[in-house]
Design goal:
By secondary structure, the chain is of the alpha+beta class. Helices cover 42% and strands 26% of the residues. A hairpin with a 2-residue loop joins β3 and β4.
């Protein structure tokens, strides 16, 4: 059970979820709906979505993402380059540096990126950092090492970002992770 708001984000794979109890605000492709216990939802790869509990009341849900199911993205060369640049960035995000590296104006890049990816370059960058935190936690890296390697100001900042996007603390994540 949790009372949490997951900000808009994407997954690279197909995900299927079910609400076990409570009510959830679910937004996908700019459409919002309220899900109740027993309702399921399907999230295609690279589809922006968010999930939150209704009226800050406890919500229980399960999600399964299928690793082998990846969709082909139809991205322009500029946005594909921007995506690769962000994926390789290990320290702070700077939209001006990104636009300079890609060779188009910052505002045009942000607009085109959101148009093709469904989220802004910064939202994509945060998602990539959270993915790297997960990988680091599962390979037993310390929080302080991860904070330094990924350009967080400190360990607390890393933990706050992780909890905001994953819904649990890094320690809870490590303790609850099961490989099937």
């Amino acid at each position: 059970m949790c009372v949490h708001t997951f900000p808009i984000h994407i997954h690279k794979t197909l995900c299927v979820g079910i609400v076990r109890s409570g009510y959830a605000n679910f937004a996908i492709n700019s459409q919002k709906t309220i899900l109740t216990a027993g309702d399921y939802y399907i999230i295609p790869p690279y589809t922006p979505h968010s999930l939150s509990s209704v009226n800050n009341k406890a919500l229980s849900y399960s999600v399964c993402c299928f690793k082998g199911f990846h969709a082909q993205q139809n991205l322009s060369a500029v946005i594909a380059d921007a995506k690769k640049y962000i994926e390789k960035t290990s320290t702070g995000f700077n939209s001006s540096m990104l636009s300079e590296a890609i060779g188009i104006s910052k505002y045009h890049l942000i607009r085109k990126f959101k148009e093709q990816m469904g989220i802004t370059p910064y939202q994509f960058y945060i998602g990539e950092r959270v993915k790297k935190i997960r990988q680091g936690l599962l390979s037993k890296s310390s929080l302080s090492d991860l904070a330094f390697e990924l350009g967080f100001s400190d360990q607390s900042h890393l933990c706050n970002i992780f909890k905001k996007y994953v819904g649990i603390s890094p320690l809870q994540y490590v303790n609850s992770y099961h490989s099937f």
